[in-house]
User: What shape does this take?
Amino acid sequence: MKRLLTSCFGLGLLPVAPGTWGSLPSMLIFALLVSMGVSNNYLLLVMLVLALAGSIVCVGFAPAAIARTGKNDPGEVVADEFAGQAVTFMFACFMPINYICTTAIAGFLLFRLFDILKPWPIRKLEKLPQGWGILADDLLAGVYAGIVFQACALSGLIEFLSKSI
Assistant: This one.
């Protein structure tokens, strides 16, 4: 059960880019809820619950994956990406969402960019013990991505991209 949850129901077990696959459910839930017309407050609540659920799973169950694999950050553990991606979309709840696909894709790509590049001090957070080190860098990557995400939306870049595609 621990492996099923930390791998986000097997997404982390996929052979290529497990972190990208682990980020996908949060993005899809975000896009689905926005397309259903839910309020920004409800959307924020759902993203907060997703971030908390992923965080609890990661901190609670990732140590078992660390012990099993002998790696400090096993690739199969993607509950951290699930949580970090939800954090990014929490920022979207404070802006109008007029272009669902572009907004969802932009938030997804920004999170993946920050999660992969790990600008300061994201990489330092990986040194925290056990599941905390796996999780903390993704939560901060989500915050960084969320800030840039809001700047893109407020500057009109998301609207421009939506009309250009």
